[in-house]
UniProtKB/TrEMBL annotation:
<dbReference type="Pfam" id="PF00107">
    <property type="entry name" value="ADH_zinc_N"/>
</dbReference>
<dbReference type="InterPro" id="IPR036291">
    <property type="entry name" value="NAD(P)-bd_dom_sf"/>
</dbReference>
<dbReference type="InterPro" id="IPR011032">
    <property type="entry name" value="GroES-like_sf"/>
</dbReference>
<keyword id="KW-0560">Oxidoreductase</keyword>
<dbReference type="Pfam" id="PF08240">
    <property type="entry name" value="ADH_N"/>
</dbReference>
<dbReference type="InterPro" id="IPR013154">
    <property type="entry name" value="ADH-like_N"/>
</dbReference>
<protein>
    <submittedName>
        <fullName>NADPH:quinone reductase</fullName>
        <ecNumber>1.6.5.5</ecNumber>
    </submittedName>
</protein>
<keyword id="KW-0521">NADP</keyword>
<dbReference type="GO" id="GO:0070402">
    <property type="term" value="F:NADPH binding"/>
</dbReference>
<dbReference type="InterPro" id="IPR047618">
    <property type="entry name" value="QOR-like"/>
</dbReference>
<dbReference type="GO" id="GO:0035925">
    <property type="term" value="F:mRNA 3'-UTR AU-rich region binding"/>
</dbReference>
<dbReference type="GO" id="GO:0003960">
    <property type="term" value="F:quinone reductase (NADPH) activity"/>
</dbReference>
<dbReference type="InterPro" id="IPR020843">
    <property type="entry name" value="ER"/>
</dbReference>
<dbReference type="GO" id="GO:0005829">
    <property type="term" value="C:cytosol"/>
</dbReference>
<dbReference type="InterPro" id="IPR013149">
    <property type="entry name" value="ADH-like_C"/>
</dbReference>
<feature type="domain" description="Enoyl reductase (ER)">
    <location>
        <begin position="13"/>
        <end position="325"/>
    </location>
</feature>
Length: 327
C-alpha cells in the first residue's frame, strides 16, 4: 500500500506534541480524490486544536485545515474532478501531509493564473475576510471600521478588500512599528500600535469622537472590553478569534451599557457549510485577487517537518501576514 507522511498529535500540548509520522494511504474512496500537496496554510485554528483550546474530534488528530495541490487519483463516482486538476480546500483535518485523500465537497478548482502556493496561503484567511466584510457586516461606501491584528494573514487581506469595497475609513491595530508599516501598505488609512497606549482613545480621536460602525476582533482577551469602547451606538463587535486567549466573564449587559451594541461570534465553516456557499466564497476571493485589488504576499515558509517551530513563532507573534508549510 502507498505511504504518506502526516503530522498528527496524540494528545494536546505545546508544539512538541506534533509528530511527523508515516502512515498508509489507501486509494481514494467513493466521492474522494487523492491530492499531492504543493503548499499548506498555517492558521491559528491549528494552534487552537493542538493546544486543546478547541476540542479535538479524536486522537490521533491529523492537523491542518488548508492546502493546495494537484489531484493524483480519483475515487468511484467522481466526475467533477480529474487527475491533474489544480485544487485547494479549507476545513478538512489532515492538511499537514505530503499526500492525502479528501472528500470532493471540500474542494475548489484553482484558476490557472493563481499559483498553488498563493491558493494555499489564502483560502482560509481570504474566505474569512470575504464573509466578514460581505456577509457578517456588509462593508461599503461610508463604512468606518476597526480591524485588529491588521498585519496578520486575515488583516492584510481585509484591509485591501475593505478599501476595494469603498469603505470610508479603514483603521487597524498592530503590535510593532514594522507591522504598522506593513498594514499601512495594505489598504489601511490609520494603523495604531497598541503597544503604545490606548487604541480605543486613538480610535475616538481618529473618528472625531463618533466611533466606528464595526470592530473585527480576532485577538480576544487582550482587546476586551476596549473594542466595545471604539463603537458607535448600535455598532457591531465581531469577535472571530482569540489569539491572546479566550474572553472570560462576558455579560450581555455590557452591550447595553456601551450603547445598545450588537455582537456575533462567527466562524468560516458556518458560512461555507455547503458546496455552493464554499464555491461562491472562493469565487469572490479568486475574483478580487485576479483583479489585483487584493495582493496575496507569502511572508514566511517552513518545511513541513519544521511545523513545530512555525507554531512556536506564530504563538510568539514573530510572524506577520501569511505563513506556508512546504511538504
Amino acid at each position: 500500500m502507498k505511504k504518506t507522511k502526516v503530522i498528527r498529535i496524540h494528545e494536546n500540548g505545546g508544539p512538541d506534541v506534533m509528530k511527523l509520522e508515516e502512515v498508509d494511504l489507501p486509494p481514494p474512496g467513493a466521492g474522494e480524490v487523492q491530492i499531492r500537496h504543493a503548499a499548506i496554510g498555517l492558521n491559528f485554528i491549528d494552534v487552537y486544536f493542538r493546544s486543546g483550546l478547541y476540542k479535538a474530534p479524536q486522537f490521533p488528530l491529523p492537523l491542518g485545515k488548508e492546502a493546495a495541490g494537484t489531484i493524483t487519483d480519483v475515487g468511484p463516482g467522481v466526475t467533477d474532478f480529474a487527475v491533474g486538476d489544480r485544487v485547494a480546500y479549507v476545513g478538512s483535518d489532515g492538511a499537514y501531509s505530503v499526500e492525502r485523500n479528501i472528500d470532493i465537497r471540500h474542494l475548489v478548482k484553482v484558476p490557472d493564473d493563481i499559483p498553488l502556493e498563493t491558493a494555499a496561503s489564502m483560502m482560509l484567511k481570504g474566505m474569512t475576510a470575504e464573509y466578514l466584510l460581505n456577509r457578517t457586516f456588509k462593508v461599503g461606501p461610508g463604512t468606518t471600521l476597526l480591524f485588529h491584528a491588521a498585519a496578520g494573514g486575515v488583516g492584510l487581506i481585509a484591509g485591501q478588500w475593505a478599501r476595494a469595497l469603498g469603505a470610508a475609513t479603514v483603521i487597524g491595530t498592530a503590535g510593532s512599528p514594522e507591522k504598522v508599516e506593513l498594514a499601512l501598505a495594505h489598504g489601511y488609512d490609520h494603523v495604531i500600535d497598541y503597544s503604545k497606549g490606548s487604541f480605543a482613545d486613538r480610535v475616538r480621536e481618529i473618528t472625531g469622537g463618533k466611533g466606528v460602525d464595526v470592530v473585527y476582533d480576532s485577538v480576544g482577551k487582550d482587546t476586551f472590553p476596549h473594542s466595545l469602547d471604539c463603537l458607535k451606538p448600535r455598532g457591531m463587535w465581531v469577535t472571530f478569534g482569540q489569539s491572546s486567549g479566550p474572553i472570560e466573564n462576558f455579560s450581555l449587559a455590557i452591550l447595553n451599557q456601551k450603547g445598545s451594541l450588537f455582537t456575533t461570534r462567527p466562524s468560516l465553516f458556518a458560512y461555507v457549510g455547503t458546496p455552493e456557499e464554499l464555491r461562491a466564497s472562493a469565487g469572490a476571493l479568486f475574483a478580487v485577487v485576479q483583479s489585483n485589488k487584493v495582493r496575496i504576499n507569502i511572508h514566511q515558509t517552513y518545511p513541513l517537518s519544521d511545523a513545530g517551530r512555525a507554531h512556536a513563532d506564530l504563538e510568539a507573534r514573530k510572524t506577520s501576514g501569511t505563513t506556508l508549510l512546504i511538504p
